[in-house]
Amino acid sequence: MDPQTAKVVLSLDAEAVDLLKEGINFKKNPEDNKCYIIYKSEDSYRACKNQCKHQGGQFVKDIEDLDGSTVKCTKHNWKLNVSTMKYVNPPDSFMQDELEVEVMEDGGLQLVELNPEDPWLSDPRETLELQPGEVQVTYLTHACMELKLGSCKFLFDPWLQGPAFARGWWLMHEPPADWRERLCGADLIYISHMHSDHLSYPSLEVLSKKRPDMPIYVGDTSRPVFWYLKQSKVKLTNINVVPFGIWQNVNEHLRFMILMDGVHPEMDTCIIVQYKGHMILNTVDCTRPNGGRLPQNVALMMSDFAGGASGFPMTFYGGKYTDSWKAEFIKNERKKLLNYKASLVKTLQPKVYCPFAGYFVEAHPSDRIIFNVTFSLCLLLQIHKETNTKNSAADLNALINKRAPEVLTWTPVPGAVLDLGLALRDPTDSQAVSVPVQTKVYKDNWAFDVYVNEQNKAVSADIFSYRDWIPFYYSWAGFKDYNLVVRVIETKDDFEPLPGGYDYLVDFSDLTFPVKRPSREHSYLELKNRVEQDQQRPRRLSPQVLEPLSDQPPAAETGLGPVFGESAIQRV
Ligand code: FES
Hints:
The chain is an alpha+beta fold. The protein has three domains: 5-117, Rieske [2Fe-2S] iron-sulphur domain (Rieske Iron-sulfur Protein, 3-layer Sandwich); 133-444, 4-Layer Sandwich (Metallo-beta-lactamase, Chain A); 459-571, no CATH class. It is built from eleven helices and 31 strands. A nine-stranded mixed sheet has the order 27-26-11-12-13-15-16-17-31. The longest helix is centred in the middle third of the chain and has 26 residues, at 323-348. It starts with a strand and ends with a strand. One of its GO terms (molecular function) is 2 iron, 2 sulfur cluster binding.
């Protein structure tokens, strides 16, 4: 079977998107003359091929339709409501296959076709009854779950110690005391994507000392998950990159399939695990897992609940970015996410649902400074705990209990166990969920210095030492042709300028580095980079030839370039 692919079938630029009207829009790809329908409702879109499910006829506007959401087939008059993608004539008959709509950062839009759409339907397995204790799901921390499936232990996304996103995120939950044994005692591990709250090198370092040959599975994303393996110095020798949408057989009863995200296919993945015919769906952080097409009635579904890691808008200050604007924006975004997750669960009807992957805290003392920072200290960065509210797993489950009471919800604490066999047999069985007694739930000690001292060493790395390497970095990043000027200022933790720190302008219209802001009208941002003040950085003259110093690869190779540690990584 061929792996699942994602193909862009129609691209519209920002101007064409602006011209889309509310309701139905008929579009043709000028390159292959294939036709599509885009339904616009405020700022959201649905799309499908202009092809009738009956015998492939073409749709036109239905002149009898009063609310502007129905199209009519020119062959035998079937009718499709494009706002719901349901055929209304014949009534209660078919659903139209949808295309994934990706809104681009530049305001353009792409229609993407996944092929096949439902790869988990291939090679179906008979569903066998699960015995008590046969399938046990244990929550460890954040996005880390341990699945005992018969005799096999499968672990997801082990972030079990250390920070994520430099010193930004720290574990909220204290993992069970035996987490090291559980990590090293697993039979296989899935890592969903490269973000450091899922791919945690401090956690994998523990694993590498005992089980460097642990089979680790990742999706075949265009941005390799383990791009930093060699530089991390963590020794792992059995990393397997698997194609999307293909069952990977573990044993007679157990298999899994990795699927891509519709919004970030280059980076994000999700997974379906199947044991004795029962499916466990983990959508992790995907914004639109598998383009929105997911299996219904799975035994267990788990997903994130907290919202993205983006610094927007919390790290913005000035202009419209007042505290009240940010609070309102975040409140609405969180509410939207909660509603989206609740309606997804209602549609998919899993037997059990568990929100996870949102248990982090900005615990480092430097972020307490941010909480208390005053306007005069901070031009740009400002975070207030009250403003930056987060969703809670309990809130999401309460909403689901209201909207889909037939779904059993689970809000675990570290070490809590779900016995899937018992839960499926009788959702009211109190034995189906067990909670550990007298264990610490929340962390109160993170050993900051161990990790932050290591990170701070990077401040004096060669890569930052040469002023004329700055243009090199921006050329590599490739972001240009925008009427935007950014001033980058290195500061101390309190946002005061760092003595001897960099302070420069970048003009993104032509990637130049002027000493003064240009006189033309332009968008302007100031970006403050906090740098550990005790670390003095040597300033050097640039070598004539910009070759990497010591064994540090050039920046161009560290992001999207070759995979390091290639010998440890194989394609399956
Ligand atoms: S092909 Fe559309 S109604 Fe028959």
